[in-house]
Amino acid sequence: MTEQAAKRLDTEALHHLPAYIQRPAYDRADTRIGIVHLGVGAFHRAHQAVYIEDALALDPDWAISGVSLNSRDVRDALAPQDGLYTLALLGETPQLRVIGALREVLAARDEGARVLDRLADADVRLVTLTITEKGYCLSAGELDFAHPDIAHDVLYPTTPVSAIGYLVEGLRRRKEQRLPPFTVLSCDNLPDNGGKLRRAVVAFAQRLDHDLACWIAENGAFPRSMVDSITPATDDALRARVADELGFVDAWPVQREAYTQWVVEDAFCNGRPPLERVGVAMSNDIAGYDRAKLRLLNAPHSALAYLGSLMGIETVAQAMATPELARFVERLMREAIVPNVAAPQGFDAPRYVEAILARFRNPAIQHRLSQIAWDGSQKIPVRLLGTIGDALAAGRPIDVLCLPVAGWLQFVRRQARNGVSLVDPMNDVLSQIGRRTTGDATHDVDAFLALDAVFGSLAGDGRFATALRDAYAALGDGSPEAVSAALA
Ligand code: CS2
């Protein structure tokens, strides 16, 4: 590493980067913060912020104030870097690019008042979110008023902790100041993400102030969107490579595959960045896209995560190089999921499946199965159970679809019995059930099926319970040999 490598990436460093490193093509000082982003994690920084980076070269009004709702890590890493960070595009010829779209990074736990000031700032016209499934505090698709964060925010609405609480307090202040609302754009992997967010925000506002709820419902906008790009977590190898190439230390670079897609419903209430000029597909009907992506990419991803982890495999590419697992996931997609995806017009399912499989196989991407395995209680319902419900309603078979669900149960069982806690908001109850499993399919599956927040009404469907017990039994003791035999 050169002598310079000890120095941090920052505004000054931009003048000293190797010429081939792409950097902001606009003057950051001339930009204005027009977007507040809640959940400024790696996915946002590798995806939406990169589109906005391109948009800023066309219109300086849309720089981002990035907010972490829970942790301080991103703020602490990026504040000394003036919000600058490096994006590594993984492909045959890896490329680095320094992104300048984040003009400010706030940690809400310390700087809640500043976050609210931003939300009430007339220049801010768009709030985007990547807070993951659990950040919405939903139960059966509706806002869960029993969730501790929501219960807190109902009591103390001017000092919120949840994303919903921040949005509603920001909107309340705007109404009071006679400012128009901002558009609220969900960028999370949830079906009908904008619709769910609208209902949650309006329901919360309704608890506080009927007029505010009406004002939001009439004047606000909550477009739906579909986001897609595989973004493995940052690791030390990436940090080292970035320092080496840049000649400056970046405390938190991000990486993603070269492929990226963002489909956004064109329904904004207060202007928008020139998204259609930077590769975003603007559409008036995105319902089909988000379902196709969740069912055909995220569901197989979860299948690989749980079945692959049980087999002792570490990454998606390794899982795809394991013949019985690769064969199973292809079958899952082509035979079991495609018939249950009501495709958007012009959608070519076989081509979509082929492209996803090629992305999964990409050996340049070290995407850890353990990362995808997080938050199973939030992911399984939206990725797999909807498909199972549709298949049952149409009288189609569900045995193949139940195998990854059973894989998740076996994974929970294994972690609990090994004393390893899950990265999952339902860790306590899941681990408790996991510890009490006996290996008997009926006993174990029925204990899990009692989790209403996960299985909902599907638990009462005898066909589902039977198929899930069979799949669980087929995975035997969940050992690599047993799983491998079940897939063969
Ligand atoms: C993955 C997604 O971690 C996960 O659960 O399935 O993050 C996936 O990589 C992205 O949705 C791809 O767009």
TrEMBL record:
Recorded GO molecular functions are:
oxidoreductase activity, acting on the CH-OH group of donors, NAD or NADP as acceptor
Q: Which SUPFAM superfamilies match?
A: 6-phosphogluconate dehydrogenase C-terminal domain-like (SSF48179), NAD(P)-binding Rossmann-fold domains (SSF51735)
Which UniProt keywords are present, listed alphabetically?
A: Oxidoreductase
Query: What InterPro entries does the database record attribute to this sequence?
Result: 6-PGluconate_DH-like_C_sf, 6PGD_dom2, Mannitol_DH, Mannitol_DH/Oxidoreductase, Mannitol_DH_C, Mannitol_DH_N, NAD(P)-bd_dom_sf
Q: Does the keyword Manganese apply?
A: no
The Mannitol dehydrogenase N-terminal domain covers which part of the protein?
A: 34-276
- Determine if Protein biosynthesis is one of this entry's keywords: no
Occurrences of domain Mannitol dehydrogenase C-terminal (ranges): 285-475
**Listed PANTHER family:** MANNITOL DEHYDROGENASE 2-RELATED, MANNITOL DEHYDROGENASE DSF1-RELATED
Q: What is this protein called?
A: Mannitol dehydrogenase family protein
To which species is this protein native? Lysobacter soli
